[in-house]
Design goal:
1 helix; mainly beta; 143 residues
Length: 143
């Protein structure tokens, strides 16, 4: 399974418009070659270099139907996004996407797409810690 974004290139900085210094809108992501067994997807954008033991999760999108292969940019910051799925609470305590805003230095950001063999059944506004534990048990492939 391959995950890509038209918003930025792998290993390159996230453009300003997707950060706290810009418009703070969510970037576009698309994927291909997902396993046929996938029942749904979950997308997590995480900064492992942020202060704290577990870094900082910027976006948690889950319950994405298996027929979806693209997340358009600038998704609304609502619990349920029509024809897309549910958004959880990020580590800023906000719903939906919150752009990078590192206090200092260069940070890395990892977007991970999970193809899940089973629907997690999580409610809207879930937190990343609960979702990630569910992913590991039912994940088929990660992109």
């Amino acid at each position: 399974m391959r995950l890509a974004s038209s918003a930025f290139e792998r290993g390159q900085p996230i453009p300003r418009r997707f950060t706290c210094e810009g418009e703070n809108i969510s970037p576009e992501f698309s994927w291909e070659d997902a396993p046929k067994e996938a029942k749904e997807f979950a997308l997590i954008l995480h900064d492992p270099d942020a202060p704290g033991l577990k870094g900082f999760t910027h976006w948690l999108l889950y319950g994405i139907p298996r027929t979806v292969t693209r997340v358009q940019e600038n998704r609304p910051k609502e619990a349920k996004v029509a024809n897309l799925g549910l958004q959880g609470q990020n580590d800023a305590g906000k719903l939906g996407y919150t752009g990078p805003c590192p206090p200092s230095g260069t940070h890395r950001y990892f977007a991970r797409l999970y193809a899940l063999r089973k629907e997690l059944g999580l409610k809207s506004r879930s937190e990343c810690r609960r979702s990630e534990s569910g992913d590991r048990r039912h994940s088929h492939r990660r992109g």
